Amino acid sequence: MDAAFTAEQQEIRRTLRDLLGKRSGPDGVRAAVAADCGYDAELWTLLSARLGLPGLALPAAYGGVGCGLMELALACEETGRVLLPSPLFATAGLAAPLIAALGDEAQRRTLLPRIADSSLTCALAVSGGALTRALALTGDNAVGEWAGGGRAGGVQARRGVGDTRAWRLYGEADQVLDGHSAQLLLVAAHTGGYARGRTLLFLVRGDAAGLSRTRRTALDETRPQARVQLRDTPAELLGDQGDQGDQGEPRDEGAADAVAAALAETGRGAAALLAAEAAGAAGCALDRTVAYVRTREQFGRPVGSFQAVKHRLADVHVQVQAARSAAYYAAWDPAQAGPLALAQGLEALRRAAAEAVQLHGGIGFTWEHEAHLYVKRAAADELMFGPVHLLRARAADQAGLFEPDAADAADGEAAA
């Protein structure tokens, strides 16, 4: 890994930080989350025009900038610093990679250019609040139990009449990121009954008949969530996910395996982006706290001059720098470090936000101050994408840290 950033990467970071510094302060964030869509649509369009933000990691052949996950992670670090409410993560971090991996050529050429130019926003709808399991961040997603199963619950799919790509969806998905405003939904649905059921992905237009979406009250308003209900809703199968029987039962078991693999790969990249966001937010919370304790006086001297305060902030600084390094490594090699980097980023953000509230004193507990926004982001992200101990356990399992070696296994058998 080359730890030095290229001139292009540095320019992406500098341009985005300057633009967000002018357009997305604490007051701007509060105004954006109060909008019907949950973000500043004008700023979203500007970010697309100036930086090609939603298409940063998409190939140039599909209208993207042609960069990679590292550039998108650097952008997420900057958006995380200001807690920018935007459809960037749901659209570019979750939906676009799945469309690129599973969609057929016609779907990719239709959808990806619209994502790249910001004219299409997307959301991934998974039932039961099981997003982290679907993305294989805290456990294996191959079984498909996270999709609700075939007897009841989750979202069920039935094939429509005539066109083999036309389907009808029934059910409900909760806690869908940006689900209330996305123009296209990628819905994970169970098909084929219980005995031979599989979980596949379907495309649902935001204005489809039978689709009902309700914005929910969320702990972190900068990440709006929605309840998505589908009642005989028309949908299109994403890509060619296997031959289907007359009743919609998949004949090809590899179809569901391909979906699980694509979701897991997307999850590793998403973990790197979330880790970068968390590191950016933690760094900003720390910077604001350091600036405050330099000016706030107690007993005739700045609070920041007390040794105990220095030690506390020094510990946070070390933790933030470690989280930032882990996020960069995860963006460079998501398969190796995604969940672990996310765990480190979430811990750093939680610690930095807590210290920000404590060291700001009385004002840090008020609704008017921005410190509470970082506390809510830390808590909400861990609830939705964690918890931290499960992220670390998943990373340990994937690395085989706790698997007994051959000698231990032989000793155990001999003892038995």
Automatic annotation (TrEMBL):
Q: What is its EC number?
A: 1.-.-.-
The signal peptide stretch is none
Basic and acidic residues: compositionally biased ranges: 217-234
**Gene3D superfamilies named among the record's database cross-references:** Acyl-CoA dehydrogenase/oxidase, N-terminal domain, Butyryl-CoA Dehydrogenase, subunit A, domain 2, Butyryl-CoA Dehydrogenase, subunit A, domain 3
Pfam families, per database record:
Acyl-CoA_dh_1 (PF00441), Acyl-CoA_dh_N (PF02771)
Q: Which residues form the Acyl-CoA dehydrogenase/oxidase N-terminal domain?
A: 6-117
- Protein name listed in UniProt: Acyl-CoA/acyl-ACP dehydrogenase
Could you tell me which InterPro entries the record lists for this protein? Acyl-CoA_Oxase/DH_mid-dom_sf (IPR046373), AcylCo_DH-like_C (IPR036250), AcylCo_DH/oxidase_C (IPR009075), AcylCoA_DH/ox_N (IPR013786), AcylCoA_DH/ox_N_sf (IPR037069), AcylCoA_DH/oxidase_NM_dom_sf (IPR009100)
UniProt enzyme class: oxidoreductase
Q: Where is this region: Disordered?
A: 214-257
Cofactor requirement = FAD
Tell me which residues make up the Acyl-CoA dehydrogenase/oxidase C-terminal domain: 272-397
According to the UniProt entry, its GO molecular function terms are: oxidoreductase activity
Record-stated family: Belongs to the acyl-CoA dehydrogenase family.
